[in-house]
Amino acid sequence: YPSEFLVQKITEDNQIPVHLRVSVSLQYVAGLKGSALVEFFHGNIAEVENEELRHLMWSSVLFYKTPNVEVMACVLLSTKAIYFLLDDSFVHADEHQSDFWNKENSDCENSSFHLSCCFVLKLNDLQSVNVGLFDQYFRITGHSADHIVTCLTRDSYNTHTFIQQLMAVLSLLARTPSPEPVDKDFYSEFGSKNTGKMENYELIHSSRVKFIYPNEEEIGDLAFLVAEKMDGLTNLPSLNILLYVLAFQVNHVEGSAQNTSSLQPKTLILTSSDLFLFDEDYISYPLPEFAKEPPKRDKYQLADGRRIRDLDRVLMGYQTYPQALTFVFDDVQDQDLMQNLTLDHFGE
Fold it and tell me: CA-to-CA distance for 208 and 175, rounded, in angstroms?
């Protein structure tokens, strides 16, 4: 162990997205190649001697207890657990959640020794995996609020690959089967769910972990919400969501020493008539079973919305993926001026 193909695949995946910054400690991890990466995993991260590293992925992550702090992580999947190797800056990002991370090595802060926090979610504690719309993200749920993590891959390929690898690893787990009822009657015989069959977009894996996928109702709810934000300018049946993508809005930071820009996570939704930016809650919905009250904010909050017919031009950057797009709109004082003129001149 491990095979040359696996080592090569993990080495290829060990690349930090160019648009996101990480600490020195994570940069060190990203610089490891081949067998050095596997040795690093066994020497510093793995909890059991005989566990195997199966998959590596770089992704932004959100925790249920710190829903406003998105942090870069190196996600390592082994045959025993999922490890999230985090930026050390995350510990200080939210003062209210200091009890969530037990910070013991505070005396090392001023030294040249770089720390990374490692959050561990054992596969035996895994209960469900919720896949987001169009595979842009997925949420892993354990048995408590401390064990809910969303990976914002912003990439359907990375999401699909990780889910496939996770299912393969879960198949190796030996779990005790759920007890069957002693007296089987007609209704329990034909009304029970069969393992491994898709029912209501919910796939129950042989390890009894649920994989839940979005259904058409979510798109319908989203279309209804978008129509509400459009102040009823269009009729709902004709409203089609053409594109849903997790992106970043670039905010230029003025007055800073360097010419820098901050990236604000946004959900971009394109319809046949409008372009919307939403602030979306990726971690709280659907509600976990132990949640006693609904989240403090809605799943979708409108950040900006513009009509396509006011779009003047689109500027495209020449850098490689991820592509930067600049949308330039004509700011018309009365947005409904054209519509009202049309109605007045041409009647109904």
Answer: 8
> Are domains 4-173 and 216-329 of this chain identical in fold?
yes
225-273 residue pLDDT tens:
888 877 655 555 567 889 999 999 988 776 655 556 788 999 999 988 8
Instruction: List the domain boundaries for the chain.
Output: 4-173, 216-329
CA distance 11 to 30: 9
Q: Decide the pairing of beta strands 148-152 and 53-63.
A: antiparallel
pLDDT digits (tens, 9 = 90+) for 140-177: 999 999 999 999 999 999 999 999 999 999 999 866 56
129 strand-pairing partners: 140, 211
In the chain, the N- to C-terminal Cα span, in Å, equals 74
Partners of residue 329 on adjacent β-strands: 311
Q: Hey, what CATH class is 4-173 in?
A: mainly beta
The helix/strand/coil state of 55 is strand
Domain 216-329 part of CATH 1.10.10: no
CA 319, 322, 324, 325 torsion: positive or negative? positive
Q: Collapsing DSSP states into helix, strand and coil, what is residue 304?
A: strand
Q: For the segment 33-47, what is each residue's pLDDT rounded down to a tens digit?
A: 999 999 999 999 999
pTM: 0.81
CB atoms within 10 A of CB 296: 8
